Amino acid sequence: MLQYATYSVISPEGCASILWKSAEKAPLAAEAMAITSERLRDLGLIDAIVPEPLGGAHRDPDAVARNLQGAVLEVLGQLEAVCPSTPCSMRATSG
Q1: Which listed site, 28, 31, 48, 82, has its alpha carbon 20 to 30 Å from 38?
Q2: Is 33:8 a contact under the CB 8 Å cutoff?
Q3: What is the pLDDT of residues 61-82, one digit of tens each?
């Protein structure tokens, strides 16, 4: 997952409006939702965080592409030594 990306099925404002009837509680909802890359990694929902340039991926797309390529190649390198049926069972038991 990219460093500054978020993952959510609802916005923090929408969540706050449902739970507390006020979008003003969006920061509290965002924290509770654990939508940042660091929190998702800590919870075991993602495997890695791909670094982004200061200010986000749009500031330097070439740098992000290189970082993403490196992350993908690293994982592919790890998987080369694994038999074809193993990755699915590894994923199911990780965490």
Answers
A1: 82
A2: yes
A3: 999 999 999 999 999 888 887 7
Amino acid at 89: S
Take residue 54 and report the two structure tokens written for it.
């200061």
CB 32 within 8 A of CB 50: no
pTM over cut 0.85: no
pLDDT at 81: 79
Q: Rounded to an integer, what distance in angstroms lies between the CA atom of residue 1 and that of residue 62? A: 17
Selection from 11, 9, 10, 86 nearest residue 94 by Cα: 86
pLDDT digits (tens, 9 = 90+) for 20-53: 999 999 999 998 999 999 999 999 999 999 999 9
CB 52 within 8 A of CB 67: yes
Neighbours of 82 (CB within 10 A): 11
User: CA nearest 27: which of 38, 41, 13?
Assistant: 13
